[in-house]
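Board notes (copied after class):
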Amino acid sequence: MATFSKISRYRGLDDVAIVDAAGRTRVSKALRLAATVEGRFRHTLADTDRADHLASRYYKQPRKWWRICDANPDFLSPQALLGKDASAVARFPVTFAGATPPWPALFAALAARPGVEATLLEEQWSLVPETQLVGGQEVTVNVERAAHSVRVTYNRLNLGAAEIAAAIDAFGFEVEEPQVIGRAGKPVVIPPDTAGLRG
């Protein structure tokens, strides 16, 4: 029988006995259902944040990191909550000097790379002033121009942003500095440390 700390969130759960495939009786704890946890206070994440550090800062108890995770159920793990899991997203701004960019070939090559989970072409249109000769006179007109980026979701255990940039460059694109889309600068909910709840 496992022993739990007096502040453990599993300590008060009922014991459950099950029989495994070999016929042995095993004792475990019942499933802990995450309670609905709300909070009005939000913390803006920094690259250096860790779940236990946030719990220490706000609750004076690093082992209460799970309260922050319960209050942010859209993330499957503390690492995902902080943007430190294996999955990463980066945006690669690109330009192409030729007439027609080879988008289908590029995306097929990226999808075939081990570790690439998803790819997406992003276009941002804007009006750019341009001087044109009209009837022998120079006039300034606003012309629509598209800025393109390739957004890639990838497993950083398999490859890095530099390797992806090199793969894009191999198709004749000029690749600017990749922009890693992380959790830094984004808010997470910090719920109150309600009295009577185990940590």
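Comment from the instructor: Residues 103-112 form the longest helix (10 residues). Residues 195-199 have pLDDT under 50 and may be disordered.
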